[in-house]
Specification:
InterPro entries: KH_dom-like_a/b, KH_sf_prok-type. This protein is α+β, with helices and mostly antiparallel strands. The protein has three helices and three strands; from the N terminus they run βααββα.
C-alpha cells in the first residue's frame, strides 16, 4: 500500500443553515481544523497517507460559504 492515498469523505447533515454555519465556522476555519485533526489522528493510527473531506449539508444540499451573504461579504478578495 505504499504510495497509495486513502480518501475519506464524511457528510455532516444539518437541519438548518444556522447549524451548518456553526459547524463550518467563520471563514470555514472550524471544519478545516476538524479535518486536519482527524487527518493527523487517522494517519497515525493507520500508518497511511490520507485525504479527509468533510461535506456539510443542509437538507441534503451542500452548504457553501459563498452562498451565505453573512459570511461571503467578509471574504471579499478571497477565491471561493
Amino acid at each position: 500500500m505504499e504510495g497509495e492515498v486513502l480518501q475519506i469523505v464524511a457528510e455532516v447533515e444539518c437541519g438548518k443553515d444556522r447549524v451548518a454555519r456553526v459547524v463550518v465556522g467563520q471563514h470555514g476555519l472550524t471544519v478545516v481544523a476538524v479535518a486536519k485533526s482527524v487527518n493527523e489522528a487517522m494517519q497515525d493510527l493507520l500508518a497511511q497517507q490520507l485525504f479527509i473531506r468533510i461535506l456539510v449539508k443542509v437538507n441534503g444540499k451542500l452548504y457553501q460559504i459563498a452562498n451565505d451573504p453573512r459570511l461571503a461579504s467578509s471574504r471579499s478578495g478571497v477565491a471561493r
